[in-house]
Amino acid sequence: MTRPSEITRDRILKAAERLFAERGYDATSIRAIVARARVNQAAINYHFDGKEGLYREVLRAAFRGLTEDQLAHAGDAAGLPREQALAAFVRRQLRPLAARDEASRHMRIFNWETVRPTPVFRKLMSEEAAPFMGLTVELVRRFLPDADQRSLMVAAIWLLGQCSIFVRNREQLAGPPVALAFDDSAVDWLARLLSGWTLRGLGAA
Amino acid sequence: MTRPSEITRDRILKAAERLFAERGYDATSIRAIVARARVNQAAINYHFDGKEGLYREVLRAAFRGLTEDQLAHAGDAAGLPREQALAAFVRRQLRPLAARDEASRHMRIFNWETVRPTPVFRKLMSEEAAPFMGLTVELVRRFLPDADQRSLMVAAIWLLGQCSIFVRNREQLAGPPVALAFDDSAVDWLARLLSGWTLRGLGAA
DNA sequence: TACGTTTTCAAACGCAGGTTTGAAAACGGA
DNA sequence: TCCGTTTTCAAACCTGCGTTTGAAAACGTA
Question: Could you give the CA distance from residue A90 to residue A95 in angstroms, rounded to a whole number?
């Protein structure tokens, strides 16, 4: 693989990630992507075999980026008291709230998919979400040692839901009638609030 | 207003609601709508002044349908003990889980919008979401009488998030790796579980 | 029934989308 | 340097989109 062609490929991927995250698959045109990447239009078909092939690559990267952040800390969590482990988990889930970074773009692409999953996504999900769900289930199990598997699963989703509603709706929440805007310190504050309610809810405080 | 033209209008609205819910605004074509409604293509421009105007009407209906269910019971809630009021609220929020009905279509349209709100939606939201948010804030205030306005708002959203993650992701949750399917009794069970955790979280049990 | 208005219709328009093409340019080993 | 391969490029192609048009049909009223 020669050097310059890799650069073109990468520019396309970067531009596509931004645009797919911002507008979704349908509303993002090939022409918009190549304009942003400053690359010839035919390059997408050459390197990715069309728009759908490009999207597949972007989705893979987003999925990896999102879960590996939590998975990377799964080891730490085992060594922490359950209260601290949960607080850290919540704080990490809320991270895309403040930062306009790669992680928040990945979350955004993910959000588009949860509305109407493409086949590409379903496959990725059933193959690679298990470790992440497993990690979350193990976390809540430390608070509900006697619960059955089904309840644990619900508890894990419950925990994720409390965080995701803020992340997913960040933009709406910034406007009326809610008017909640988040900088780093506001995210810390929110994380403490949510952790507190969750800990009490699970009977740990 | 004559009779048959109202029928045409209604057929268009019904078909559009289904398709917008299923595929979102961008991926739904005028041609698909008129094919489903068995109506001439120009009828959409005639009755709704274009695709966007039609979407506005669909969005309005969806919004009304979603909130009026809760608003209609706002009166009852005031007469109930706070624990029962909250449990009833949660149960109502979870309603679209079991039914494949109008309510679940409305939720779906709503979901599309939360990913990337259209101007139409933003306007509707800032104008009409206030009563619904107010109702939810009043509910949590009964558990957190000393909290400031910002915390109450967060608590209200927190409560909504716990429910919405199950409703929004119903289809994904049904498959691997989670495998949670919901019939009426499962929804009751889930509502009790969530209510319990929430009540404890807010310090009421 | 007669007539102005409302509503439907088939056809076409202009545009933006994804993809294809064929040649030019850049590359890299011999 | 030479030559086969890889990569880029501008232009065109075709399809499907939302909208417009102008006339025909249906309607409601007097």
Answer: 9
Name the residue closest to the C1' of D21 by its CA: B42
Joined tokens for residue B144: 């957190």
Whether the beta carbon of B30 falls within 7 A of nucleic chain D: the reply is yes
Rounded to whole angstroms, the Cα distance separating A147 from A145 reads 6
Check residue B75 and give its pLDDT. 80
Chain A residue numbers with beta carbons less than 8 Å from the beta carbon of B161 are 161-166
Q: Which residue has the tokens 């799964």?
A: A74
CB B116 within 8 A of CB B59: no
What are B75-124's pLDDT values in tens digits? 887 788 999 999 999 998 898 888 778 888 888 888 888 877 887 788 88
> For B145, which DSSP code?
T
Nucleic strand D within 7 A of Cβ B2:
yes
8 A C-beta contact, residue B107 and residue A14: no
The one-character DSSP state at A33 is: H
Contacts of A162 (CB under 8 A, 6+ apart): A90, A194, A197, A198, B158, B161, B162
The amino acid at residue B72 is A
In which residue ranges of chain A is pLDDT below 50? 1-2
Q: Does A14 touch chain B (CB under 8 A)?
A: no
Write out residues in chain B with pLDDT < 50, as ranges. 1-2
Residue A115 is nearest to which of B24, B176, B177, comparing CB atoms?
B24
∠ CA A110-A186-B150 to the nearest 5 degrees?
100
Percent of the residues in chain A that have a pLDDT greater than 90, as a whole number: 53
Instruction: Tell me which nucleotides of strand D come within 7 A of a protein CB.
Output: 6-12, 16-22, 26-28
How far is the C-alpha of A135 from the C-alpha of A149, rounded, in Å?
14
Neighbouring residues of A102: CB distance < 8 A, sequence distance ≥ 6 = A65
For tokens 């595929």, name the residue: B23
Contact across the interface for A169 and B114, Cβ inside 8 Å: yes
pLDDT tens figures, A90-117: 998 898 888 778 888 888 888 888 877 8
- Is the Cβ of B153 closer than 8 Å to some Cβ of chain A? yes
As a whole number, the mean pLDDT across chain B is 88
